[in-house]
């Protein structure tokens, strides 16, 4: 497995550990899709906005070209799954019936606002369900690599790309750290294994709160994992 | 009245240049591929196409794009056909991007006699620029008008001879909505069954929405799009 | 059969003769409900706003208390019928998917505007689907007795009861005559059997056009039945 | 998580005085009669009830009317219970009348994250008085806000153990809409089946809308409402 894959799997696995059933979860394209394989709670139900509640893994021989997820990848269906049209699916999303959305981003700023649909200077060609998920899901978890390919922080003071919503994400999970967004401020709650606080500070443009516990340099408020 | 037509070109006789067409499908999934082939054969131009995507490069609606028949497209995710950007850059197509939930909701409104509605989606973003904003019970919304079309081309799984339709898995997507929001609705189906074979509780699109039916001659399989004549 | 019943059946039968398949027809409560038994064209499909397309007569032994029409009377279902929820049913109505609505009225004025949901001085307690049918159906046929019990015309210069819509009906069928509404004017097109034009004039407060054909006192434009 | 509750009173523990309740049914058809019985047993007052009708005199919601538990009713046809007028005259109940299509559409909007919408229905009538009017593409519409409730009490035909629901004939009516538009949704069903017994294409209300399920102990038959314990 390549290093890129390792990183993505690490982030996906960490995101999966945030999910506690019973809940309804929508997984975005990219890293979020990988989250599915780390879920083994039968009370966690996966929703895909193209019209299926009860997304499951699918083995090669059971692939059905007419049963796909939002990334148009073949998926399976759980026992108890249901299909519905796009308006009904987005009614579920906008209407507040999805508990958690896990989304990839291009940028996220220090208030938790994300940009994940358009790049300035390029044609704005697609938005899909991103804006609907941001306004509708009860909790939004961002999964993203901490930096771009050239090493620039994706956690910025302010998004330079068009934002997806004025609503803030609730949590940001990267291969370096986990942040909670509390009152529109990023709060570091966890360092990923082997990562130091200095490394996070160096690679993060966004301001974030390090609320140490017991004056211990490596413990943060909410830092209950290691 | 017999709604069943022998082939796509015959069923499409009502399509005229300048028409607005809704075309079902999420990419190629649930797209009426036989009817799109028919559109490629007939001499119509300046179409406005309302569809989530414009197919893929050279496939599905991507064929019509290459033919230059699409003057404007309204959708949510054109990225799935990399050629759309090129045509857009050259000024050969006009694009209107809507969030996917807004696209589907506007179709539903168009079919339901609703003039427009307020959605939370998009508030404060570039896609809300120029749109009326309104606060209702302390929450901000943007106004979105209903959308309708002259013709809807949809894909269903089975039709009965009356025109009742059911769909298949995620190939359902936008199809039942488009069936409500156009002056003429043409459905391409995998199978035509006798009246009474579809359960009254299970019918997704009642026959009053459907004007014409053809049998699919191209379907999406694991191996890609194949002819099934 | 009572005289009242005779009159209602006469009106219902005349209304049924206006229907040509293929078409989708919604029948209101009262006289319109009676129209069903005079329809024998399989291409005429009856819609009821509580959620059924394909209303049929039902015999006593097949009555199902959970299968009713808008008047909460038991009905049957045709082969090819479908059930749907109330929002979908009214989407069909408002969205222009119903070809003909046949409605009873309390009053109709000389522009074709009807009043059929409320009486001044009484509690306004119910409207049901009347307003939706008026704005949505492509063609509206009014079926009503020509006068109230005390002999007053129901076809008025102006409705004194609250109107149901600003939209005019397209046709008015009574036990005395049939009127078309053309450009917001009533046009007499037919006298019911045995009724004279003088009787209609006497019993009708609303102004209406008598466009005689061939200067024949009993022929009116559109008067093709006798 | 087990959504199945043993009896109505237990399932209704979340209902508080002052709450807004949606209650399914077109008259007694598709009304959750067992849950309504449960409401009659518990000590709650000042309810706002959103329902097409208030049952019939002394039956269905008519029981709660007689108990004086309903402070306000929002519906389209109260005429079916002749006692509603008496309570209204005495100032003992507040009534809000909506066209039936507006009532159902407002519920759908409430469940779908739509703040409000423009409908043609009612324009120029007494029921549009005080409502905002707007012309869209030359057609007049009135604004209608979405409606939601704290609790929805609905009737379905079958539930699976996950909470997926299907309905029965015209007993469907408002129930699937109310299932989307309340903070807590309690479904009364004729039958509870295992997960997987309802077809994924046929499920009308997916389980994410349903919080609690009870089995019906009162049902509507040709002979009237009977106990089926």
From TrEMBL, chains A, C:
The keyword Transferase applies. Keywords: Transferase. Gene3D superfamilies: Glutaconate Coenzyme A-transferase. Pfam families: CoA_trans. It comes from the Bacteria. The keyword Transferase applies. InterPro entries: 3-oxoacid_CoA-transf_B (IPR012791), CoA_trans_fam_I (IPR004165), NagB/RpiA_transferase-like (IPR037171). GO terms for molecular function: transferase activity. Belongs to the 3-oxoacid CoA-transferase subunit B family. NCBIfam families: pcaJ_scoB_fam. This is Succinyl-CoA:3-ketoacid-coenzyme A transferase. It comes from Bacillus badius.
TrEMBL record, chains B, D:
The keyword Kinase does not apply. Gene3D superfamilies: Glutaconate Coenzyme A-transferase. SUPFAM superfamilies: NagB/RpiA/CoA transferase-like (SSF100950). The keyword S-adenosyl-L-methionine does not apply. This is Succinyl-CoA:3-ketoacid-coenzyme A transferase subunit A. SMART domains: CoA_trans. GO terms for molecular function: transferase activity. Keywords: Transferase.
């Amino acid at each position: 497995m390549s290093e890129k894959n390792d990183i993505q799997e690490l982030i996906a696995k960490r995101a999966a550990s945030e999910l506690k059933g019973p809940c309804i979860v929508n997984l975005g394209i990219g890293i979020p899709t990988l989250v599915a394989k780390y879920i083994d709670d039968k009370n966690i139900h996966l929703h895909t906005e193209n019209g299926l509640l009860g997304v499951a893994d699918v083995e090669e021989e059971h692939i059905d070209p007419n049963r796909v997820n939002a990334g148009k990848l073949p998926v399976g269906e759980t026992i108890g799954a249901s299909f519905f049209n796009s308006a009904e699916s987005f009614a579920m999303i906008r209407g507040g019936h999805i508990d958690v959305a896990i989304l990839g981003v291009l940028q996220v700023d220090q208030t938790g606002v994300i940009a994940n649909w358009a790049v300035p200077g390029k044609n704005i060609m697609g938005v899909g369900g991103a804006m609907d998920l941001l306004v509708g899901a009860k909790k939004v978890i961002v999964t993203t690599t901490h930096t771009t390919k050239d090493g620039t922080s994706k956690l910025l003071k302010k998004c330079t790309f068009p934002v997806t919503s004025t609503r803030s994400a609730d949590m940001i999970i990267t291969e370096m750290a986990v942040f909670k967004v509390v009152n529109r401020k990023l709060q570091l709650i966890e360092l990923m294994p082997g990562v130091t606080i200095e490394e996070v500070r160096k690679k993060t443009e966004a301001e974030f709160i390090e609320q140490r516990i017991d004056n211990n340099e490596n413990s943060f408020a909410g830092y209950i994992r290691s | 009245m017999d709604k069943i037509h022998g082939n796509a070109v015959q069923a499409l006789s009502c399509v005229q240049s300048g028409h607005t067409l809704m075309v079902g499908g999420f990419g190629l999934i649930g797209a009426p591929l036989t009817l799109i082939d028919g559109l490629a054969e007939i001499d119509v131009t300046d179409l406005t196409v309302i569809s989530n995507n414009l197919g893929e490069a050279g496939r599905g609606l991507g064929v019509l794009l290459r033919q230059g028949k699409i003057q404007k497209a309204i959708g949510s995710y054109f990225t799935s056909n990399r050629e759309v950007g090129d045509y857009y850059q050259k000024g050969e197509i006009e694009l209107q991007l809507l969030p996917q939930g807004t696209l589907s909701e506007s179709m539903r409104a168009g079919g339901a006699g609703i003039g427009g509605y307020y959605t939370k989606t998009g508030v404060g973003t570039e896609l809300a620029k120029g749109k009326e904003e309104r606060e209702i019970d302390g929450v901000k919304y943007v106004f979105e008008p209903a959308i309708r079309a002259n013709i809807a081309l949809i894909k269903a799984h089975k039709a009965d001879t009356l025109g009742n339709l059911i769909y298949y898995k995620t190939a359902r997507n936008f199809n039942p909505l488009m069936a409500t929001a156009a002056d003429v609705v043409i459905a391409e189906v995998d199978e035509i069954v006798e009246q009474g074979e579809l359960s009254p509780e299970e019918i997704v699109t009642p026959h009053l929405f459907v004007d014409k039916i053809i049998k699919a001659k191209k379907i999406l399989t694991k191996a890609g799009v194949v002819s099934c004549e």
